[in-house]
Structures are given as C-alpha cells and as structure tokens.
Amino acid sequence: IPPAPDRVLPGPLVAFTNALTYIEATWILLLACDMPALQADILQQWHQTLPQVAAEAIAYLPRHPKGWEPLCGFYRHRCLPDLQSYVVNGGKSFQKWLHHQRVQTIPQVPVEILVNCNTPADWEPYVIKANS
C-alpha cells in the first residue's frame, strides 16, 4: 500500500516504541514483513538461546557488515524508557539508537535468511519457489 502523499510516516522505530507501551512480555520478537527466507526453526533456535543473553543486553540481533538487522530479532521490554527518550528527542534511526546500546549479536546467522524484499522484482523468486 503506497503511503498517502500528504503524510510522512514516522518509521519502524517510532512504531516499535509505540507498540512497546502495550506489551508486557520480557522479550519481544520484532520482525520485518519483507523477509521471505526467514525460517521458523531458526527463530525457534534464537528464542531458545535467550536465557543465555547477557543481562546487560537490551537486544539480541543479527549483525552484518552494514550494521544491525534491527527488524529481525529480540528486544527486552526494559529498553522502552531509553527508546522513548531517543524518539522524543527526534531520533528515528534504529542503527543510531542501537549504536549507543548494549546489544548481543546472534551468532552464525546465514546471510541469505536476512534478505528483505522491497520491490515486486525482489519478491518474484520467492513467489515462484512457493508456487512450484
């Protein structure tokens, strides 16, 4: 759905911040909707390792050469006050916010599962595979 031309949408960080105010769980799984190669069994493995995440870490995320994959991992609910402060002060970038946070890297994440599809051409191979 294309955004309304007269509206500027605040982005995923602001949306996540707003959503956190309604969630009471200790850990929250945040996933983008455009990652067709992500597999449920891998998410389950990550979930099972949450008890081993350092107590100081506010997030458990994959990392790639360009930075964190912020829309594919787990966040502790207690990140909310700092996140709200960041957003109130005009922050909108997950990467910039995470740069100042304690984040634990999810180890050995296959790069191919982190592919996100932003155009119909990006989706095409996955649609073909799903229909075959």
Please characterize this protein's 3D structure.
By secondary structure, the protein is of the alpha+beta class. 34% of the residues lie in helices and 15% in strands. The protein contains 5 helices and 6 strands. A 4-stranded mixed beta sheet has the order 1-5-2-6, with helices on one face. Strands 3-4 form a two-stranded antiparallel sheet. Strand 3 and strand 4 (67-68) form a beta hairpin. It is globular and about 45 Å long.
Question: Any descriptors?
Answer:
132 residues; alpha+beta; four-stranded mixed β-sheet; two-stranded antiparallel sheet; 5 helices
What is the distance, rounded to the nearest whole angstrom, between the alpha carbons of the first and last residues? 27 Å
Q: What average pLDDT do the residues reach?
A: 91
CATH level-1 class = Alpha Beta
Q: Biggest sheet, strands in spatial order?
A: 1-5-2-6
Q: Which structural class do you get from the secondary structure elements? A: alpha+beta
Question: Total number of helical segments?
Answer: 5
Quick summary:
With 132 residues, the protein is an alpha+beta fold.
SSE layout:
Blueprint: H1 12-20, E1 27-31, H2 40-48, E2 59-61, E3 63-64, E4 67-68, E5 72-76, H3 80-88, H4 94-99, E6 103-105, H5 120-131
Helix pairs in contact: 1-3
